[in-house]
Structures are given as structure tokens and as C-alpha cells.
Amino acid sequence: MSSVGANQTEILWDTWGVPHLYAQDTKSLFKAFGWAQTKSHGNLILKLYGQARGKAAEYWGINYLESDQYVKTMGIPARAQEWYQQQSPEMREYLDYFATGINDYVAQHPDEIDDSVKLVLPITPTDILAHLQRVIHFHFVTNPQSVSSLQTIAPQGGSNGWVIAPEKSASNHSILLANPHLPWSDFYLWYEAHLNAPGVNSYGAALVGMPVLAIAFNDHLGWTVTLNPIDGADMYQLTLKDQGYLWDGEVKNFETKTETVKIRQANGSYTELQFGVKRSIHGIIIAQEKNKAFALRVVGLDHPHGLKQLWEMAKSTNLEQFEKGLKQLQIPLFNFLYADQKGQIFYLFNGLIPKRPQGNWNDWQKIIPGDTSKTLWTEYHNYETLPRLVNPKTGWLQNTNDPPWTSTYPPILEAKDYPPYLAPPSLSYAPNILRSQRSITLLKDSKKLSFEDVINHKFSSRLLMADRLLEILIPTAKALANPIGIEAVKVLEKWDRQTNIDSRGAVLFTLWALTLESKGIFSRPWNPENPLETPAGLADINTALAVLEGVAAQVELLYGSLDIPWGEVVKMRFGDKSIPASGGPGKLGSFRVLNIQATADEKFQVVFGDSFIAVVEFSDPIRANVLNVYGNSNQPNSPHRGDQLSLYAEGKMRPVWRSKEEVKNHLILEELIR
């Protein structure tokens, strides 16, 4: 083993393709992190940075025209230049070094990167900030689909997050469960890494192309994030008049700019498309009709220090320091759940929440009148006014994308104590209410939870919807259904109500439930008097039976059997690997989340769900298991592309190797970077 010189950084690659970085100083650590990510995801990162520049159509053709128009309309490249100038000198240097690590890796390993994406080189630090904006502000806070439909729907997505206090823990140590659910592609992929430098020993995951960890733990503490229901974008309707728009009774002129997109043709030549961009006092004009226009206002575009905040949080050693980072409010959304070695647990409904003059949550989901300054927000709520809990008596905190009021149960935070527009008013607004109820029930019904209990709960694929509905469906179908319906309920009666590889009945139930859902499935809606047991009941038993018989006929035709095992129909595919799946849709109440879509072969594959998973017990030394479900690389020839799928299918996680001795015992490659 070579010794590390004074100006060298060591990267130890373990058998799962996780880089353990050991640097003499922070700037060298950032350079090594850029190098490591490029080794694991170089083609994707260069493609993403090209898109964040608004030059993807110039590099790769007309299929990227819409992406470029969106990026340039939102002003991402120009704002990235401004953000770079606004960084602290240290942060500018760190971004410079991260970009250098990317460029150096490609220069020294040109054969490992596709020629088609090398057009983007060299990478600059502003590319990193453009990528940050494109992902966080213009796909998480708002996104192209909602913008084009003139909607500002609160972000939808998945994640499970738990923190457990010592009094609820079998070992008397606090425990963290980090479990984001995101698409298994593009900029949503997680990258696992271990970062070491003076004052830094952080382990966790970053979204690919990002220079800092978003979910992490160190020797003292750890945290996870979940997507929160937050209204960070509003659509304003303007009244047009005299080439401008009405504002407080007067005509105000638009700011205008012409943007150009260069488009590469199949023969290698280029065409150019020019389009005008208008801006009102509210924000970018998204659409214009005969006498009205629509302007988009997005939070956080004047808060450029999100990366610095995350970096400082990763170096913190106690809750006070961690909150000092959070109080900067540079990250426009996401709940934070925290646990530490002192036994503290903490939850924050984080975000840049506008101070709105009036109205409730539902009011601000609509298009807002934009002809008066009375509706225009210009300030954000400060940290002290956000929903927050420290060390509740229940001994646990959770979030599954539900509003903050059910972060523990019985609730401590109450919607009535906060502005009515700050968050949705109840659990009924949770995007996957059954998953949220399952999470709360797993925690509140457990007297003490061990490290192993948390892992077992994480891998539970029991469908709460089945528990709610089968007691009604089965006897009714036996009495009223046609022969195929009666055969179907015999299968459902024997089914284990899970979506494991060998679960027989899961395919039939899931297809029935997903089909029936669009017609309205429950007879009793969510009831605040019975918050964890509703919605319930079957809305229309005749429709339910008809759908069951239709789905049963389809299952029998396609698969030859009503009780075909789940794993024969649903596959986890990544790279060239295809593994039978265990896990089911969160909307059906599975805590082990795999969302699926149909494939050309009449089966289904996972497209979204469990991705990076970590369970951390803050003992001394810290105990941690992790899993990056689809593997830690997406490069075409990497052995780590999909190499953890089989572990996930078996409900297993990997032990974390944090000491250098452990890492060297599981070493496949050592790199030294000058």
C-alpha cells in the first residue's frame, strides 16, 4: 500500500464501489469528490451540466430544445454566474476544486467517458450552481409540467424519515432512519460517499452532480431529509394594457430579453431559435393570452448559499451547531429529521415560506390576482416561526411527506397555531396517506425499537389498503361475484397481504386497487376524529366487483394464473440487471416503496421508490447499515451498476465501513490524486 504524500489525496474504493476520500485539506477533498463522482457517473454528470447551461440542444440535438427553453426562460445560467460571485471566497474555491476534479478525471481517463458528452468540457463552478438551481428550484420547488399547465402544485414525492430517542430505543441510543424515494434515473440518483479531511468525517449521500452530502452522519450526529408539502411557487394572473400590465391602477412595463437556443442538426450543422422572455414584478411570464398574462414567482432565487449551509451542517458536532446551519434558511424546502449521540432528536418543517397577506393553503394553490401589490409577497418567515420539535415525550419523530402536524402522535404541533397558508391543514393532504398512517402506527405501537427492528420495519411491504378493504371485499364477492370473481377472492383470502417476491395475490390486489382508485375507492373519507383508521370502506361494491372480475380475467390471460408470485411480474431493472422485486406502491400503504409502470412485455418494472437507505444507531462507536438500492455507479461498464438490487430484494443492508482498517479490509482500488 502506498503512503500518502503531503499534497496527495487518497481515494479508497470498497467492494461496493463506495469512495472513501482522505484529504489533507478541504479544497483537496472537494477535488477528490468531483473526481470520484465522475468515475462513477461521468456520462450522466456531463449530460446534466450541459442541460443546466441551457445548451443541451446545441450538444445533442432537438430532443433537448424544450429543456433548454425552460432553463433559459427561468434565467438559470445567468443567475448561476451571479450566485458564484456571491459565494464566500472559501466556497468559491471549493466549487473550483470540485469542477477541477471532474475535468482532471476525464483528461486522465478519456476512454471511460462517452465522446458525445465531452462537448460540455471544461466544467466550470457555475455549472455546479446552475445544476443546483435546475434540480432544487425548478424541479423540486416547481417543475416544467406544472408550469406549462399554469399550476403551482406543492411538490409531490416520497420519503420515509424516522428519528428515535434513547427512551424508545432498545439499546438506549438514538436511531436515525434515512429513506428517500425518488425516480431511479437522471438527476434523482443518489451517490454514496465517505468524506474525510481535517474537521470532517462525514458519511452519506449526495444527489449526483452535487458537491456536498444532503443526507449524512458523522461521529456525533446525523440527519435525513424528506420532501415536504410546501408552497414555494405561485402563479399570478396579470391584466394586460398598452403593451404592459396593470399594477396598482397604473400601467407598468415588462422587462424584456431575447434568448437564443442553438440546435444541432443530424448532419452536424446548426440552426438557431430566438424567443423573447418577459418579466413582471412578480417573476417570469409563463404564458400570455389576448388580455392577460401569467407570471411565476419562485422562492429562494435570492438565497445562493445552500451548498455552504449543507457543508457546515455536515461539520457540526451538536444540535446547537446543526441548527446554526439550518437558521441560514438557504435551502428552499425539505423537512429535516436529526438524531445525535447525546440522545437528542429533532424535526424541522424547513423552507422559505412567503409571508402572505391573507388566505389559506387551498387559496394559494390557485392562480393569484396579480394587478395589486396587496397579493405580492416579498419576505419570508424567519426560522423561529417554522414548525419544529425537539425531544418530544413520545420518544420518536417521523415524516412521510405528510404535513408537520403528524410528525409525532398524538400531535404536539397544531395547524391552528400557524398561518393557515403555511402548510396543508391535516393528514388528509398527505400524498400517500396510507403510507403515513403505516409509519405512525409502526412507531407508536412499538414499546422499544432495536436497530434490527428498524431495518425489519423498513423492509415491511404489508399493504395497509388490503387490511382496510379485504374484510369487506372477500365476503361480498363470495356472495355476489361471478365464478372468476369467486376464484379471485379465494386467492386474496390466502394472500399474505404483502408484496414480497413470493407473495401470491399481490399482483391481483395491486392491479385491482390501482384500477379502482381512479373511480373512487373509499366510502368513508379521512376523519379527524379517527385520523389513523380512515379513509376506509368500499365506495361502490358493484364497481369494485366488476373491476375485480375484469382484472382477474386479465391476470389469468396474461400470466396463466391468478396467484402468480409478485416477483415474476414486477422486476427491478438497472443497467443490464433484472431482479424480481419485493416492495409495493406507497399509495397502497407499503412502507417498502417501489412504484411501478407497465413494460412492453406485459409486465412491470420499478421506476421510483426506495433509493438510498441508512439506519444509524448513535452508540459508541456508531453502528450503521446502508444500501444504495440501484448501486453506486451508472457508468456502462461499471460492476456496481445495479449490484445492490439483490440485497434489497432479500431485505438486507450493508454494514458501513468507516475506519480506515475496515475500508482496507474491503478494498478493490486505491487512487492517489496530487
Automatic annotation (TrEMBL):
<keyword id="KW-0865">Zymogen</keyword>
<keyword id="KW-0732">Signal</keyword>
<dbReference type="InterPro" id="IPR029055">
    <property type="entry name" value="Ntn_hydrolases_N"/>
</dbReference>
<dbReference type="Pfam" id="PF01804">
    <property type="entry name" value="Penicil_amidase"/>
</dbReference>
<dbReference type="InterPro" id="IPR014395">
    <property type="entry name" value="Pen/GL7ACA/AHL_acylase"/>
</dbReference>
<feature type="active site" description="Nucleophile">
    <location>
        <position position="159"/>
    </location>
</feature>
<keyword id="KW-0479">Metal-binding</keyword>
<dbReference type="InterPro" id="IPR023343">
    <property type="entry name" value="Penicillin_amidase_dom1"/>
</dbReference>
<feature type="binding site">
    <location>
        <position position="231"/>
    </location>
    <ligand>
        <name>Ca(2+)</name>
    </ligand>
</feature>
<keyword id="KW-0106">Calcium</keyword>
<dbReference type="InterPro" id="IPR043147">
    <property type="entry name" value="Penicillin_amidase_A-knob"/>
</dbReference>
<dbReference type="GO" id="GO:0046872">
    <property type="term" value="F:metal ion binding"/>
</dbReference>
<dbReference type="GO" id="GO:0017000">
    <property type="term" value="P:antibiotic biosynthetic process"/>
</dbReference>
<dbReference type="GO" id="GO:0016811">
    <property type="term" value="F:hydrolase activity, acting on carbon-nitrogen (but not peptide) bonds, in linear amides"/>
</dbReference>
<keyword id="KW-0378">Hydrolase</keyword>
<dbReference type="InterPro" id="IPR043146">
    <property type="entry name" value="Penicillin_amidase_N_B-knob"/>
</dbReference>
<protein>
    <submittedName>
        <fullName>Peptidase S45 penicillin amidase</fullName>
    </submittedName>
</protein>
<comment type="similarity">
    <text>Belongs to the peptidase S45 family.</text>
</comment>
<feature type="binding site">
    <location>
        <position position="234"/>
    </location>
    <ligand>
        <name>Ca(2+)</name>
    </ligand>
</feature>
<dbReference type="InterPro" id="IPR002692">
    <property type="entry name" value="S45"/>
</dbReference>
